[in-house]
Design goal:
- The complex is a heterodimer of chains A (about 450) and B (about 180).
- Helices cover about 45% and strands about 10% of the residues of chain A.
- Chain A has 19 helices and eight strands.
- Chain A starts with a helix and ends with a helix.
- In chain A, about 45% of the residues are buried.
- Chain B is built from four helices and nine strands; from the N terminus they run ββαββαββββαβα.
- Chain B has a five-stranded mixed sheet with strand order 3-4-7-6-5. A two-stranded antiparallel ribbon of chain B has the order 1-2.
- In chain B, helix 3 links the parallel strand 8 and strand 9.
- Chain B is of the alpha/beta class.
- The chains are: A mainly alpha (about 450), B alpha/beta (about 180).
- At the A-B interface, helix 2, strand 6, strand 7 and strand 8 of A face strand 5 and helix 3 of B.
Chain lengths: ~450, ~180
Amino acid sequence: MTEDVKSTQTLDVWVAGTEEPELAPTDEGAQEISADESETRLDEQFGRVVEDDYVFDDDADPEERMILNMGPQHPSTHGVLRLQIELEGEIIRRTKPIIGYLHTGMEKTGEQLTFAQGGTNVTRMDYLAPFHNELAYSLAVERLLGIEVPPRAAAIRVLMTELNRCSSHLVALATNGMDIGAVSMMIYGFREREQILAFFEKTTGLRMNHNYIRPGGVAADLPPGWKDDVDAILDELPKRIQQYDDLLENNPIWVGRTRGVGVISAEEAIAYGITGPTLRSTGVDWDLRKAFPYSGIEQYEFDVPVGGHGDVYDRYRIRVVEIEQSLRIVEQVMDTMPKGDFRVDDRKVTPPPRGRIDESMEALIHHFKLFTEGYKVPPGETYVAVESPRGELGCYLVSDGGAIPYRVHIRAPSFSNLQALPITMADSLMADTVATIASLDPVMGDVDR
Amino acid sequence: MSDEHGSPEAETVGEATVLERLMPEQPVLRGLFERFEDVTWELSIDQDVARVPNGRWLEFGTATKEAGFEVCVDVTAVDWMRQRPERFEVVANLLSMQHRLRLRMITTAPRHEPTVASLVPIWSGANYPEREAYDMFGIVFDGHPDLTRILMPDEWEGHPLRKDFGVGSVPVQFKESHKVS
């Protein structure tokens, strides 16, 4: 018998019938749910720092509790998100998101690339809203350089980012639908998104990771006939949104699965630094496009949808209305697209035109230097934020006067919004987990960077 | 915009040059300016920056929250290596929704055992960003409830965003070929 126990210890498995070894059932290293059960610590883990809406059943048998690992490979965790969930029967008590599975050190990479190359790096962070990443980064570089882009470049930026908001929200609706069981919604969402991505491809050459918005303007002018493409999107999308509404809005299953599910209060959302549709679903009227307008977006008329319940349904409705409002902006941009240059007329950051390179040695040298050495940016530090589809996407940029940024930090909205997960999921049913995750719409590329 | 910020007249005291304290333009920040005499105010490309001594980080954070900065948007760090006397800078970006105002507070941390008070007791949202700063720079946030690695694996050695942490590379064919012959 003693020999048996010895062998089980070396193998680290327990053979039934032998003496049970003392193994901590949830030993996950430093990442495990904290064993510290002090009152403040428990409050944090239960998500009741601000207020608690759950009547805890004290009589529950501790044996009833179990730890469930969800992910990192799970179709409805939207990438490689892993959750440690403590269950009591079917009720979730505590949740701990474990992230980092997609960490590729992009901030470190940003310190190796020049300011001109940085766009290719940041665009890969939030891969569903690449234009917003590029915009935040470009605005930060431009602020350090002290340059202002021409009106046409600013208008193109607004056009692209707002279309990007539509395409990103379409994915959010599609995956949210699929996670709850409305699989047709997923097909629809991705179908409409493809139309927008086709326009992106025509303009930038790539469906995703465009590196189109660059410090100093945009990479290329809009292609000939762009108005027809945008017109087609403006024509098609409202009809499709009507279809989604017919499909979901009054669908008793949809409403039953989303109303009152994954609730977060305004106080909690503000305390945890949660932004974007999740914050607005709690009734807080906060949109950076209105509060700190960027890229000339203040000249266009649009409304900010605000919820009141802070539940999954409100977040879904807000996304639908935001698509409509973004289309409204796109329409105005299209009608008022200014003429002129799409890049700043500053030879320091803008390469010489292609025609000049053939005839002028200086232009050739200039072009070569710009793309090998890059341009120097005055020393300083700045923080610029834009309203991405997921919330406040900020870029904290530090320059020491060289051609390579000293520090690139992206304040990722998904990263901060993930802190809402333990709060929204605490005291809810296990079956609502996927609905809650989908409604927060985390992009793991943005979380892990 | 810079009119109200006073004139940065330099007085020379001994060998060190002391700049006259700049007063922030925003009325919301005036109370903080008066209360904290050892906090230096700056205008970094039209953005308000408060340079806080390490020991008063938590106290200053509490005061800013009382002044109306209800959101801690982000906490991060910068590694200055040998370029500055104190190696690390810890940067917290604050947001006031009611005043539509941003404020950046910056403190420094020494080379050995860099420690800063955690902002989690004030803003629960500082939890993840501080864990990230700990993971990437090894800055210890005193009073943080769960200071563990967040992006890197638990058993990882070193802190990747420090400037003395090398960039990894993959062997590439023919790159070293000139050394062979």
